[in-house]
Each structure stands twice: as structure tokens, then as C-alpha cells.
Design goal:
The protein is an alpha/beta fold and about 950 residues long. Helices cover about 40% and strands about 15% of the residues. The strands form 6 sheets. Strands 3-9-10-8-7-4-6-5 form an 8-stranded mixed beta sheet, sandwiched between helices. Helix 3 (about 55-75) runs parallel beside helix 4, helix 18 packs antiparallel against helix 19 (about 555-570) and helix 21 (about 645-655) packs parallel to helix 22. It starts with 8 loop residues before the first helix and ends in a 6-residue tail after the last helix.
Length: about 950
């Protein structure tokens, strides 16, 4: 480095060493040196000069001031005034001058480093005041982990140009006060009028309401037409009333019990779990649609559902434009730090199949769980530290400063629209009461709640600020609340006068043509056949590979075999039956979306819906290349998540009934990782919230000797959830029946979830095929009778479902057993008892009805069947199965074969010979081994 003669030899040597490091890697030297050398190189190129003729000590201190500026930007959030009721924890090192090689003696010295923050050459004291105001006030900005320089620069310019200090007009301040007053007064009113009733109040965090009000206004100005909101129960009633514009009268009527009707077929839910949607008009006259998703008490469970709804609307309503809709997730501090679903959802943010253009995360940081202190609730410094996973900026804001919160959320909205990334706002506040209003928080936090008892609410604090500023007269203070309470009292009086607010369910929007199903709808399936010419044309299209692309040899062989099915044999295996269902729906204008772990190829290497060229990363998707007029076909390998992805796909299907939305488990056994979604949404959403859903779950199931975690999709758990015609559960045995089951989802004017226990070994079983006629003339068959026996010869009727049928069939045919009929029950729920009875009665000489299953006696369909048949025609039906077990299956291949042979032998009344064991062993060899 040249021209350092005015520095001492030691200083010159040090600076030159720093410069050499900088040239190798700018990140290897401190921020101050980076900025200095940037200027040095620029000046050198522009004028040939190098360093200004300044004293060596002053020069080094300029670098120190730059380091101090960077220190505030990087660590200022640790020293903010953001906690309204607690002293902040101490963090080291501090931002003290001596930590940057500066002292009080430098406070009046003018430093050119002020240019870095946009104030020009300035005294050190002025630079510090600027930094304190910007980075250590009511807003703490945590963003320096972002790796994109342009993003960092944008955030800094936005904050530093305004000094992170709101400058609202009087009109805007009055709007904030109005919403804050609504929030505070509403909670006070509920607390006095409905004493003892749970409401999970927002008290302590009422600034959330003006913040949400502002983000809707700001978003509409930036092109947002719709927000999808997910939140837990705390503050939900306040959001419903003061943001969603659900009428106070309706909410009060729910407190009065007026929403219940004895004639309603639905069980309903507590008022602080309910969803709502509405259109609001902003101050600028723009219409914005708001949807608040219903949610269970399971904290953060609603998150993937919100993201799925948003993505569905992006795809259908907004033609792929994610700048017109945004998701907002409102978390609690304990749940965002403790619930693993948060991580699963955040990891979706940049994935092609799941991204929604950025989520605005708001954390109601009460600094406490139910009774758990924040220090026991997480290891991380902040509850929002998960934001660093997606390099999303975080703004920590004092909940007692509504203007700061409104400012921060507006900045967050701008960031989201510009960079399409998540952004977090951590609202430091408190919970005025216990977990619910009847809980006593002083049992566990006595000191904190002594402080909270004496602490003024955010509205009263803000009123005093406005009076001090001269924007509000002291005489107005009491009138503000009095006027609003009068309105609330009037609405309460109206609610009390009502006899009932119950209304029959009416679907709107994309669901306007749908209705609630009734029991008669399930007596038989609708016609789902496809014309032969159409089916074969689609079959040929999905099996033809483009000649100008080179594929892996095994793929070419596989597609040649499929082409032979389409062009010659007209007999189709499971993979072809599935893809023909998709292809026919696509050509009928129905969008198809498939998602899950490894679904593009298929866990068992059977689907091959996405083909990768042999010598390139290029992919070819046959189902996306049927015809220019076809609907969109989407298939995505998900990240390794069940809970998050199933919730996402449920949300996707919830938003639109006109797409076939499918989630497939890698193995059916793994669906229990998503049990909360299955229990709280899939099985019960219609009963609780009157929300239908047509999601399809594909769960590979079957006992092939692969052990406890690769055998059972837990049929029994789904069966115990079945009631009120809430879902359809099938375990079909033919490609054609699977084809019809998928098409049936669109053939009725209502939607129900479809749970399909799909095969593994049957994917390659030579008998598990369907002829063309089964696709072109039939419909879904709930029960399939035995065509291989003479009814007059039959004395024993076996009922079964799934893979076990083929093992029974092989032994029946090999031994020419004429006295045993094997009847397949393809649909387990709604259980087709009438059809089963009708089939059984065709066997006039039958004396035994037996249910045969692979699963242990306490698992599979049997526990459900035994309960449902005990007062019916089949009250004496027996069961043949594995003996009851605490584990789904044995891990020993020999024991598996012995158990399977026992079931086959006992069912068919033949000795358990080696031949029977060989039949049981065959299924294992047909499975593509994956673990």
C-alpha cells in the first residue's frame, strides 16, 4: 500500500497488513477497515491520491467509528428499550465507547464516518445519538445475518433515513388510537359482561390491532388484494371483531349461547377457534379480502394450512402472482420456539412447490408460556431465532409503543413485497391475566404480575403521549372509551334479544357450487367411466417418450412396457391406472397436484411421473405434455416432513374444490408424524367448522415382512375417526378401482377426504391388473364378489380388503377350493353393509362369514367392523388375523411368513404346508426395498 509515510512505521505496517488481507478477502477484516479500503481504492482510481492528510490517530479512530456504527447495526437490538414490564437481560460486550477504541474525549470530535449513516461529517456524540435512536429505541432490528448486500443496504437505508422513528400525521395517529381503543375497550367489556367465561384476551398486546389494521392498509397500497391469517386463540376474538369485522352482536350472541341449534348436524367448536372471512374497504377505497383460518388448540398447527391456502389461491385465483396475496401468521413466544411444526413450515418458504412469496410473522411475546418462564421455554436468545433459517429479518418492538409497531409492520410489508421473503415482528408485551381469565398467574410469576397489575394499558399510555404532543385534549380521554362502550352495550342488548343465530351452511366463493353431503350419497358411487377412444389416446400420450431426448435405459424399457399396454394388451397395472386417472382429469380441465416424499419417482420406483434425462439435469413430465388445452399437472418431492406437508396440502385443498390434491406418505406408517392434522382437520373440520375438503391421502400399506415401521399405515386409527360420513377410506385391489376412486372425487357436488391404503408388492403383481373394459364401463365398486366359485357350492364366505386377497386367491385357485368364496370390501368407510349383506345372501348354503386381515386382531379394520356389525345381519361374523399385538408387525422374516401362512391356511381350512408359506413369501420379494 502506497503513501503511508506520514504514519509511524508500526502503524503503516499494520495498515498495510490489513490491506493485504482485504485484497484477498474483504470479509477477513473488520467492517471499519472494509469501508475504509473501499474508499481508498475508489479514491486511488479516481484521482491517483490515496489517503487524506490527516493525523495517524485521527485516521485510526475513523476506522474505529465505522466499527462502532457496524456494532450498533449488528448488536444494537440487544440493548433496546423494547420490554415494557421487565429489565432487559445484560449482554456482553456492550456498545460502550471503549469497546471500539474510543472514549468520552472523542465525543466532540468531528468524524467523516458520519457519511456512512447519511448525516455527513459529524461529532461523535451526534453519531452516537443517531445510532441510539435508530437501533436502541422501541425497535430492535436483527438483520445482519442476511447474506445479500443489496437487501442489507435496503434495510439500512430504510431504517436510517427515518432513524427508525415513526412520523405519522395527526390523522394517522387518531386512526391508531381508534383501533387501540377498540381493542382495549372490547376486552374490558367482555371481562365485565361475561365474567368467568374463557376468552383468551389480548390484554397486554392490544397494539396488535392497529398493527394489523395498518398492514392491511399498507398492503393494499402495494398491490395486495387478499390476506390469509392464521393465529391461535389468544386475542382471536379481538381480531375477529376489530379486524375481520365480525359483528359485535354475533360475538356476544355466541357468549350467550345463541349460536347453538339442536337441529344442527354439526358439533361446532368454541368461539375462539372459529374462522371467518370478509371483504374490507381501506381508507383509499380499495377492497381487500381477509380470511382468518379456523384452528384447534394445538398451537402453530394452523401454519401449514394457511400457507397451503395461500399457495392454492396464488395458483388459481391470482394466476401465479404472489404479490397480490400474503399470509400472516400470528404466533406465541412459547409456541414459535417450542413447536417443531414452525421449523417444518419455515423450511418450505423457498421450495418451488410450497413457496408463497413471503410470510409476515407476528409474535405476541407474552414472555411466558402457560406457566413456564421464557428462560425455561428456549435455549436461544430470542423466540424468533428460527428466522435465521431463512435469513429473514426480525424487528423486536415494544408492545407499549403502537406507533413503533405500526411503523415496523409497514416496513415489513414493504420488505415482503420487494424481496418475497419471510419477515418477523417480535411484539414484546405481556399477558395481563393467566393463561385464561380464571387462571391465577401469581402462583408461578408473583413478581412479574405485581408489576403488570400496576402497569397501564397501551391505550392509556398512548393517550398520554398524544396529550403531551398536543394532538389530544385531556377532556377527550374518558369520552373515547365511553362512546365505544355505549356501542358495545347496544350490540349486547341486541344479541340478548335474539332467539338463535344458527344458520344453515352455505358455501361461497370457489365452493359456491358445493353442498353438504347426506347418507344417501354413499349408497352407490357415480359413473366415472371414460370412453375407450379417449382413454387409449391418453394412455398412448403418457407412454410416448420424445425421440429427441435421451433417457436412462431402464426408463426406456419401462415406458416400452407401458406403451405395449396402451397399444396392444389393453391391460393396465397399478401405475398406469393411477396415471390414467390423472390424465383423464387433466384433459377434463381439472388441475392435479401431487406432493410428498419422493413422489416424482415413487418410493417403490413405480410411478416415474418425472423423468430426468440421462446426460443432463433436464426433466420431462409426460402428464404435463398431453395437450396444449390440458389443465396443469404439478408434482413435487417434498422436504422430509409429514406434519407440515400434509397440513399444507390440506390447506391447498381447503381453498379450492376444483383440483385433485394428493399427499402421499413415503410409507403409510409415517403418517402418524402428521397425526395432529389428521385428527384436528381431516377428520373433524366439517363437524367443528362446517368446512369440507377433498384431500386425497395415499398411504402404502401391506404386510410383506419389512418390519414394524414398513408394514402398517394404521388402518385402525383412521377407522376410529370415522363417523358422520366425514371421510372415505378405501383399500382397493385393482388399478381400475383406484382409477375410479380418484375420479369419483370430482363426480359429486360435495367433497370428502379420501384415504387410500395403497399397495407395495401389488405394484408388480401379475394378477393386480385391470382390462380396458373396467375403465370404460365400470365405476368404483365398494364390494367385489368372487367370480371364481359357484354360489351353490359355497359354505364359507371370506370378507377381506387389500393385498391379502391375492394370497388367498392363489391358494384357492391352486387347490381348486370351491366351498370358500373370497369377497373384497374395497371401501371400509362409509362401510357398505347393505352391499356386503346382498352379496352374502347369494350364497344360500353359506354357514360362516369371516373377516380376514393381515393386521393383528386389535388393529386393521376389525375393531371398527366388530363394533359396526354387532347389531346387524353380520352379528356372528368371526375374524382371522394375527393375534393382538402392541407392535404392528414382527421384524423377523421367518416369523412373518409363518404368521401369514397361518392366516391363509386357517381362512381356507387347509393345513399350513410349505406351499402356503411360499405364497406368503412371494409378496415380500415384490417390494422395492427402501428404508
Amino acid at each position: 500500500m502506497d503513501n503511508l509515510s506520514y504514519l509511524s512505521g508500526e502503524n503503516a505496517e499494520y495498515i498495510d497488513a490489513q490491506y493485504q488481507l482485504y485484497k484477498q478477502d474483504p470479509q477477513s477484516v473488520e467492517f471499519g477497515w472494509q469501508k475504509f479500503f473501499e474508499g481508498f481504492d475508489f479514491g486511488r482510481e479516481a484521482s491517483g491520491t490515496t489517503i487524506n492528510d490527516v493525523a495517524p490517530e485521527q485516521f485510526l479512530k475513523e476506522v474505529n467509528v465505522l466499527n462502532m456504527i457496524n456494532g450498533y447495526r449488528q448488536r444494537g437490538h440487544l440493548f433496546t428499550k423494547t420490554n415494557p414490564v421487565r429489565e432487559r437481560r445484560k449482554h456482553l460486550p456492550t456498545l460502550a465507547l471503549d469497546n471500539f477504541g474510543l472514549s468520552d474525549a472523542d465525543l466532540d470530535t468531528v468524524f467523516n464516518s458520519g457519511v456512512e449513516i447519511g448525516i455527513g461529517a459529524a461529532k461523535l456524540s451526534d453519531i452516537i445519538a443517531f445510532l441510539e435512536q435508530t437501533y436502541c429505541g422501541s425497535i430492535g432490528a436483527e438483520y445482519k445475518f442476511v447474506r445479500t448486500p443489496e437487501v442489507l443496504s435496503w434495510i439500512e437505508k430504510k431504517m436510517e433515513s427515518a432513524r427508525n422513528t415513526p412520523r405519522f400525521s395527526v390523522e394517522e395517529k387518531m386512526r391508531i388510537l381508534t383501533k387501540l381503543n377498540q381493542a382495549v375497550s372490547f376486552e374490558n367489556f367482555l371481562g365485565t359482561k361475561f365474567l368467568g367465561q374463557k376468552r383468551f384476551s389480548l390484554e397486554g398486546a392490544e397494539a396488535l390491532i392497529p398493527a394489523l389494521d395498518s398492514v392491511i392498509e399498507k398492503g393494499s397500497n402495494l398491490g395486495i388484494e387478499e390476506f390469509v391469517i392464521g393465529m391461535a386463540h389468544r386475542g382471536r376474538l379481538n381480531v375477529l371483531a376489530n379486524i375481520m369485522q365480525k359483528t359485535y352482536k354475533d360475538i356476544f350472541a355466541e357468549f350467550e349461547g345463541k349460536a347453538y341449534s339442536a337441529e344442527s348436524p354439526f358439533g361446532g367448536d368454541v368461539k375462539y377457534h372459529l374462522g371467518y372471512s370478509t371483504d374490507v374497504t381501506t381508507n383509499n377505497g380499495k377492497s381487500v379480502h381477509l380470511s382468518l383460518c379456523p384452528n384447534p388448540s394445538h398451537l402453530e398447527t394452523v401454519n401449514p394450512v394457511v400457507e397451503g391456502i395461500t399457495r392454492s389461491k396464488i395458483d388459481f385465483k391470482y394466476e401465479g402472482d404472489n404479490s397480490r396475496i400474503a399470509p400472516i401468521l400470528i404466533h406465541g413466544d412459547a409456541s414459535i420456539a417450542g413447536q417443531g411444526i414452525v421449523y417444518e413450515v419455515i423450511q418450505m418458504a423457498g421450495l418451488e412447490g410450497y413457496k408463497t412469496g413471503g410470510t409476515i410473522h407476528l409474535v405476541i411475546n407474552n414472555q411466558i408460556g402457560f406457566t413456564t418462564n421464557y428462560k425455561d421455554a428456549r435455549t436461544s436468545t430470542y423466540c424468533t431465532d428460527i428466522a435465521k433459517v431463512t435469513l429473514s429479518p426480525v424487528f423486536h418492538v415494544n408492545g407499549d409503543d403502537p406507533e413503533a409497531l405500526v411503523y415496523a409492520i409497514n416496513l415489513a410489508m414493504e420488505y415482503r413485497q420487494r424481496y418475497k421473503n419471510d419477515v418477523f415482528i417480535d411484539i414484546l408485551c405481556y399477558r395481563r391475566f393467566g393463561h385464561n381469565e380464571s387462571d391465577e398467574p401469581k402462583f408461578t410469576q408473583p413478581l412479574l404480575y405485581k408489576i403488570i397489575e400496576k402497569h397501564a394499558n397501551p391505550r392509556d399510555i398512548y393517550i398520554q403521549q398524544l396529550i403531551k404532543e398536543g394532538n389530544l385534549q385531556p377532556s377527550q380521554e374518558k369520552e373515547i372509551e365511553k362512546e365505544f362502550r355505549a356501542i358495545l352495550q347496544q350490540r349486547l342488548d341486541e344479541a340478548k334479544a335474539l332467539t338463535s343465530t344458527y344458520q344453515d351452511v352455505k358455501f361461497g366463493g370457489a365452493w359456491s357450487e358445493m353442498r353438504i353431503a347426506n347418507p344417501n350419497d354413499f349408497e352407490t358411487s357415480p359413473n366415472t367411466a371414460v370412453k375407450e377412444e379417449t382413454l387409449l389416446d391418453i394412455a398412448k400420450r403418457i407412454t410416448a417418450l420424445p425421440s429427441d431426448k435421451k433417457f436412462f435405459k431402464k426408463i426406456e424399457k419401462l415406458f416400452a412396457e407401458r406403451s405395449n399396454m396402451a397399444n396392444n394388451t389393453h391391460v393396465f397395472d397399478w401405475a398406469m391406472g393411477e396415471q390414467l386417472a390423472y390424465g383423464t382429469l387433466l384433459m377434463e380441465g381439472k388441475r392435479v397436484r401431487v406432493s410428498g416424499q419422493d413422489v416424482e419417482r415413487g418410493t417403490f420406483s413405480h410411478r416415474h411421473a418425472v423423468l430426468t434425462l440421462e446426460d443432463a439435469e433436464e426433466e420431462y413430465v409426460p402428464l404435463a405434455n398431453l395437450d396444449s388445452a390440458q389443465a396443469t399437472f404439478d408434482i413435487y418431492n417434498s422436504h422430509l416432513s409429514e406434519y407440515g406437508v400434509l397440513g399444507f396440502e390440506y390447506g391447498y385443498a381447503m381453498a379450492n374444490p376444483n383440483a385433485l390434491t394428493i399427499w402421499e406418505a413415503q410409507f403409510g406408517d409415517f403418517n402418524n408424524g402428521a397425526q395432529i392434522i389428521i385428527d384436528q382437520y381431516l377428520a373433524s373440520a366439517e363437524t367443528k367448522w362446517q368446512r369440507e375438503n377433498g384431500l386425497v391421502m395415499l398411504l402404502p400399506h401391506g404386510y410383506e415382512g419389512q418390519g414394524p415401521e414398513h408394514s402398517s399405515a394404521r388402518i385402525e386409527r383412521f377407522m376410529e375417526l370415522c363417523a358422520d360420513y366425514n371421510m372415505q377410506v378405501i383399500n382397493c385391489t385393482t388399478p381400475a378401482n383406484f382409477f375410479h376412486a380418484l375420479r369419483r372425487q370430482f363426480s359429486r357436488d360435495f367433497r370428502k377426504p379420501l384415504v387410500v391404503f395403497t399397495p407395495k408388492s401389488l405394484l408388480r403383481h401379475p394378477k393386480c391388473v385391470s382390462p380396458l373394459v373396467d375403465f370404460t364401463e365400470n365405476k368404483f365398486q365398494e364390494v367385489i364378489n368372487d367370480v371364481n366359485v359357484n354360489p351353490a357350492d359355497v359354505t364359507r364366505v371370506l370378507f377381506c380388503s387389500g393385498k391379502i386377497y391375492y394370497e388367498l386367491l392363489e391358494k384357492q385357485q391352486n387347490d381348486q377350493l370351491k366351498h370358500v368364496a373370497i369377497v373384497r370390501v374395497e371401501q371400509l368407510y362409509p362401510l357398505p353393509l347393505a352391499q356386503m349383506e346382498a352379496v352374502y345372501k347369494t350364497y344360500e348354503n353359506a354357514t360362516e362369514a369371516i373377516w380376514v386381515q393381515e393386521e393383528p386382531e386389535n388393529m386393521g379394520p376389525w375393531p371398527f367392523l366388530s363394533r359396526k356389525t354387532r347389531k346387524t345381519f353380520f352379528k356372528d361374523i368371526e375374524v382371522i388375523s394375527r393375534k393382538e399385538s402392541s407392535s404392528t408387525a414382527t421384524g423377523y422374516a421367518k416369523q412373518h411368513a409363518d404368521q401369514q401362512a397361518y392366516i391363509i391356511g386357517k381362512a381356507l381350512e387347509v393345513p399350513v404346508t410349505q406351499n402356503v408359506k411360499d405364497i406368503a413369501d412371494k409378496s415380500e420379494s415384490k417390494v422395492f426395498n427402501v428404508d
